[in-house]
Design goal:
A seven-stranded mixed β-sheet has the order 3-10-11-17-14-13-12. It has a five-stranded mixed β-sheet with strand order 21-20-22-23-24, sandwiched between helices. A three-stranded antiparallel β-sheet has the order 4-9-8. The protein folds into two domains: 255 residues, BirA Bifunctional Protein, domain 2 (2-Layer Sandwich), CATH 3.30.930.10; 98 residues, Anticodon-binding domain (Rossmann fold, 3-Layer(aba) Sandwich), CATH 3.40.50. Helix content is 29%, strand content 28%. By secondary structure, it is of the alpha+beta class. The protein has 13 helices and 24 strands. The radius of gyration is 26 Å and the shape is globular.
Amino acid sequence: MPAKSVNDIVALCKRRGFIFTGSEIYGGLGGAYDYGPYGVELMRNIRNAWWNAMIYARNDIEGLDAALISNRLMWKYSGHEGSFSDPLVECKKCGARMRQDKMKDPTKCDNCGSTDITEPRAYQLMMGLSIGAMADGAINAYLRPETATTTYVNFKNVLDSKPHKLPFGIAQIGKAFRNEISPRGFVFRMREFEQAEMQYFVNPSDDEKYFEYWKKTRLAWWTDKLGIPAEKLRFLPHVKLAHYAKAAVDIEYAFPDGFDEVEGVHNRQDFDLGSHTKAQNEFKLSAKVLENKDSTTKLSYSDAQTGENFIPYVIETAMGVNRAMLAVMIESYDEEDLGDGKSRTVLKLKPWLSPVKAAVIPLVRNVPEIVDLSNKIVDELRGLGIGKIELENSGNIGKNYRRHDEIGTPICITVDHQTLEDGTVTIRYRDSMEQERIKTDDVAKKLLEIVKQ
């Protein structure tokens, strides 16, 4: 069964090299984590699953990788500079600072219980930068708090270089930065995190149709590609909409402490392109935007059939990659009672998500022929280009199996004396722990079959 507590995942991540505390040897830094040898592989595989679904499996979405640092004006007209903040209060007794909207009781300090707290004030979530020798400490740029805005300002660049008819999308995966007051939930809420966002540009008359389409499409991806059971996911419509939204819904996963957001699907109408476009008064905008006198480009679309020139609506899908990884690890985590006082921990990951696709284990380390043949198999499997293949030459076969159970390796391949005699190896399957002998020449074919499951 899935992990009963996030603490189970925290312990596994540290023990097996998935995630470490950032700056750990200096006491750490709240909301910052480092991804270890298996964490980077799992994150990469989740990214690839998303990128394959969004880009490679479709004709209507293009990729983008925009800069992390961007001009201050971009965030002025997006509305972030003026309104991207949280209500912060401070306890006058103990000095604790808290988000008012996250307090158990907004009249009492969560830390000491005192009622002597300040009035809420806006707390800027963006991380400002002072760039250039002449900046003199003044903020003239920001680390991006999300990837979406950098997509909107590149709308015309992408459309001009790779023409599309509506609807079409632009997708990107990348880091974002927020000055969170109270990071929490391990990697659930951090100051540096990763997003996978897609902005789908549609004719305003088609917005409701594509909003429903992307809700269904994204929910199906979570179940089909990440292996999250449908009953562990739900839609939560936004009761109070953001100023830019016509409709919004969260995809929530049943974490051990309750449902919480892992992805959002939003109908942002024409707010974003309308906010950043030149000559706003030439277009009939539905959304209320800041007057923009600094943009140099019209972010509009010209319909070749009707001759109409208009600002498209945007349907956005926005996933937290770190949250996706956490949900996947929780859901695949299992502690099995093997009887006789024995147990094992196993990550029953979809094979294409597994950090290590296969481990090759020479049963005897001091027999050169067995070790050489093991290395030959490793080289052949690495030549498939399907991901990380490990040579596990560290001794006890039982301990090797348990280690690879914990990191989610689908199969272990054991080379022994019989291999030298008849050219067969033992394949041991992670989930069932069953074993079979197959020809060495068939190992690559077998692994390819498994990673497609």
